[in-house]
Specification:
Distance between the termini: 66 Å
Number of domains: 2
Strand order of the largest sheet: 12-13-14-11-10-15-16
Structural class: alpha/beta
Largest sheet: 7 strands, mixed
Radius of gyration: 23 Å
Length: about 450
């Protein structure tokens, strides 16, 4: 393959897929110019018009669900059932903002000594989105739906291993009648991002990805005084207290840890179990992790596919190996399977302690790090002993206590009780500390990339 192309690779087989030509600087500038022209017209349309367009996008997603799902299977190894569910979630976020944008961005009258004082919300212009491969449709649509409904235009720099998904999303918006170029996919390398961030027509940047990538983009945007929203990594703790429903806890922990082959910022990473129920929980948890059907993601029966790339699988295995060498005990998995593909088995590491990669770092794959806590207070302390702060969950049959711990004691952007942490269009989503800043989804998400303007009439 020529070096000036992006090549997709099927992670289940290692076979090459379709390749896409990289854009040179001239082509990039031309696309930005077209996007700017499209946005200049789009921002003058009313919410009713935008609503019709976005509802058409939702309909197209559902009509082409199988096609888009198979793209995700082939490019990043997502099981086909999960891929269809991801497309459906994209349709839901389109509908949510199509119906809610007018209310979320309605003028707010503020009583002052003026005859009229109003807070208005107006689009910024072009927003660059640097998106990851793990949810190749959802991550893009949860940015695109609010950004476009607010009157902005979108430039997409997608992950290099899902170029077909990126092209398909651009084509979808154009096919349902959005102005050509309003949402523009840019097949570029990471090295080309800096020039786009600095481009005067780009007014803001949103990134979902690793902590180093977030720091790099934030620095570039800061030098140009441009707004950013960053959703970065996580090392989400799940606390299992002495009065927890252990069957529910074990099933939920398994599902969260193995969702998307463990390749999710908000999947459970650290399992903090109080000593009174540690042995009972571990027996249930190990049984459930061992029973997962992982393999060919194109099969309906598969619940966990391969990891997205061989290099990511190998990095994960190195973290596991180093943790075991430091004293962690491998109760399940922990070995690279023979054969083709980037597969890694469901893995459980026990006796995890500070200083181990399994304790300190984000394990972006199907590896559970289990930590025994002395009591409830110790569990909360361990949960907050991290540089991240994206999600957290607590399991207890005392709902009032669970609510109090989630609200007052756990340091994260999303805290759930007796349930798996997940994103929902109706609720704000994002993190604190090294997990980033800003919020996506809900009314908070659509207001991130607008000018909050004061208008005063004396």
């Amino acid at each position: 393959m020529p070096t000036n192309h992006l090549q997709s690779i099927n992670p289940a087989t290692g076979e090459p897929g379709k390749s896409y030509k990289l854009l040179d600087q001239k082509a990039i500038l031309a696309k930005i110019a077209v996007a700017q022209e499209a946005q200049a017209g789009w921002c003058s349309t009313n919410f009713g018009y935008r609503q019709n367009q976005m509802m058409a996008a939702a309909q197209a997603l559902r009509e082409r669900k199988d096609e888009y799902a198979m793209l995700m299977v082939e490019e990043m190894g997502k099981p086909i059932q999960d891929a269809r569910a991801e497309v459906e979630k994209c349709a839901l976020v389109c509908e949510f903002y199509a119906k809610g944008a007018a209310q979320f961005l309605a003028d707010e009258v503020v009583l002052t000594e003026a005859k009229n004082s109003v807070v208005a919300f107006q689009p910024l212009g072009l927003v660059l989105a640097v998106m990851p491969w793990n949810f190749p449709f959802w991550q893009v649509f949860r940015f695109a739906a609010p950004a476009l409904m607010a009157g902005n235009g979108g430039l997409l720099k997608h992950a290099s291993n899902v170029p077909g998904c990126a092209a398909a999303i651009e084509e979808l918006f154009e096919s349902v009648g959005f102005p050509k170029g309003l949402f523009t996919n840019l097949h570029i390398t990471s090295k080309q991002v800096a020039g786009i961030v600095r481009h005067p027509l780009v007014k803001a940047v949103t990134l979902t990805g690793s902590e180093p990538a977030g720091r790099s983009v934030a620095k570039l945007a800061g030098e140009s005084l441009k707004k950013t929203v960053l959703e970065l990594g996580g090392s989400d703790p799940y606390l299992v207290l002495a009065d927890a429903d252990l069957e529910l806890a074990a099933e939920t922990c398994k599902s969260s840890r193995l969702m998307n082959a463990g390749q999710s910022c908000i999947s459970a990473k650290r399992f903090i179990v109080v000593k009174e129920v540690y042995d009972k929980f571990m027996k249930l948890f190990q049984e459930k992790m061992a029973a997962v059907a992982f393999g060919d993601p194109s099969l309906e029966s598969t619940t966990m596919g391969p990891m997205a790339r061989l290099d990511l699988r190998d990095e994960l295995h190195e973290q596991v190996t180093r943790s075991i060498e430091a004293g962690a005990k491998c109760l399940l998995g922990g070995k690279i399977p023979k054969g083709a593909g980037a597969f890694y088995p469901p893995t459980i590491l026990a006796d995890v302690k500070p200083g181990m990669p399994a304790y300190d770092d984000e394990l972006f794959g199907p590896v559970a790090a289990v930590i025994k806590a002395q009591d409830e207070d110790d569990a909360i302390r361990i949960a907050n002993d991290t540089a991240f702060g994206l999600g957290a969950a607590v399991f207890t049959q005392n709902e009032d206590k669970g609510f109090w711990i989630a609200k007052e004691k756990l340091n994260a952007g999303s805290c759930f009780v007796n349930a798996m942490v997940k994103s929902d269009p109706r609720l704000p989503f994002g993190g604190i500390n090294n997990s980033g800043y800003g919020r996506e989804l809900s009314s908070f998400g659509i207001r991130e990339f607008v000018n909050v303007k004061t208008v005063w009439v004396q």
